[in-house]
Amino acid sequence: MKERILTGDRITGKLHLGHYVGSLKNRVELQHQYDTFLLLADVQALTTHFDQPELIQRNLRQVAMDYLAAGIEPEKATILVQSLIPEIAELTAYFSMFVTVNALRHNPTIKAEATERGFQDMYYGFLGYPVSQTADITFCKASLVPVGEDQLPHIEQSRKIVRRFNQLYKPVLIEPRALVGEIPRLVGLDGNSKMSKSLGNAIYLDSTPEEISQQIQKATTDPARIRKSDPGHPDICPIYAYHQAFRPQGAQEIHEDCTKGQIGCSECKRKIFATINELLEPMRERRVTYQNHPKRVDEILISGTETARLAAKETMLEVREAMGMNYFAVDA
């Protein structure tokens, strides 16, 4: 029996290259080795977008198509909708009974995002995000979680929650392990340490060649470099970071030519544009197929959610028994 993976995304917007190198590329490769569950986290999207339900509804199919366009195969991976698995909400409630507020407040990812969003007083759902994420992982007994670097504190907190549950009741849940991509964090076009849709510094997976070109042309480079012959500092340039991520075989040459003043920023940008456009071209082609057949996308989501629901029911039978809450059967 294959080991199971659970991973996914809050559907607050389209996926970008940061998602791809941080986790999605990994998922595409791992689906051939593991029983892969991909979660469209619409409930968790409400933690920051509870007043924009129309955005979440629109993004559900958009992110699903991002998965499929990137190479996720519905015959090999299960794509599911979080809100349609009520067992996740039930598990979240159980876990929340023994997770302290202080433990959640000290989560570095929660603190960083609260600061970034200017939250003076955190909402209950936002603060409890790691508890909900633990339920996502454990409802299907996933043992591996491919994530970006920023999610590592959440996974560590999930491990603690599972450990505590197993100690309190019975060891029926699996303590998950994190699996980080080769490029754990991709720098933004503006030089920010993280590419992010909320910061507007991203190249999206559905970008046209024209959009990619415009974004790269506007990208920040070495501010101290005025002329092509000036020695550059590639280690502070986001364009060089993209060479490292997407064309590693040529990155060393770029580094040497830049530091010697033998290649200009425009040529460096042209090279990375060609590489990124080549990467995204087959994704655009696959996306068109699904855009032309939207019912096929819905069928994939329905089938995947039904499969996941079966796994959830099996897990909850064990959870309720472990907690002594299997009183009697009730017709649903």
TrEMBL record:
It comes from the Bacteria. It is an enzyme of class 6 (ligase). InterPro entries: aa-tRNA-synth_Ic, Rossmann-like_a/b/a_fold, Trp-tRNA-ligase, Trp-tRNA_synthetase. Keywords: Aminoacyl-tRNA synthetase, ATP-binding, Ligase, Nucleotide-binding, Protein biosynthesis. The keyword Hydrolase does not apply. GO terms for biological process: tryptophanyl-tRNA aminoacylation. Its EC number is 6.1.1.2. GO terms for molecular function: ATP binding; tryptophan-tRNA ligase activity. GO terms for cellular component: cytosol. It catalyses: tRNA(Trp) + L-tryptophan + ATP = L-tryptophyl-tRNA(Trp) + AMP + diphosphate + H(+). Pfam families: tRNA-synt_1b. Belongs to the class-I aminoacyl-tRNA synthetase family. This is Tryptophan--tRNA ligase.
